[in-house]
Amino acid sequence: MAEQVSPTRSTLLAKRDQRRLAIQGADLLKNKRDALIAEFFALVQSSLKAREALGNAAKDAYFSLLIAKAFDTPEAVESLSSTPIEVGIQVESLYGVKVPKINAPQSNGSLSFSPIAVGAKTLEAATAFRAMADAIMAVANTENRLRRIGEEIKKTNRRVNALEQISIPEINEQIKFVSDTLDQRALEEVTTLKRIKAKIEMRDAEESGVISAALEKGAGL
Question: What is the second-level CATH architecture of the domain 2-174?
Fold first, then answer.
């Protein structure tokens, strides 16, 4: 607070530098927030498309499963249900935000294994379910990015508000306190100097009058 700072010239200079840095920091944070907001809305569109693609992939996968069950034996269909998908996690940095991303080899319409004694319809179903898995990972990646960016936007906005509504106004109050105190001191010093000057002039005048009177008295003699 203003009353807690030392009202000196060095304090005034330091507080002005602090205010300048706080304003620059707020501007940088606002630029970051604006960039994150733009990225967020771009990702919203990607998320909607990913969800739509997932819906279509799910329809195709479950329809293919029904057809496979009609053309092949339950054992043959179930033999492909536990096929694992190897995935990896990669951490990306987006405007300083750490965002994990799921990575998996793209199927591109083909399977990563060569099944034996399985009908064509069952293979089509397996391929369709792999495509659905790719769509699920795409949705997870986009929505995870959305969540992380949304959290960072809120955090950045809180920091901007803290600077603009608390820190900078407080620094301005401190600068005003120090500046007013220094101005008051300067005014008091000027007033004191004027009084001293007036006393000196008065004393000089009195001494000059005494000397003049003495000279006049001596001349009369």
Answer: Orthogonal Bundle (1.10)
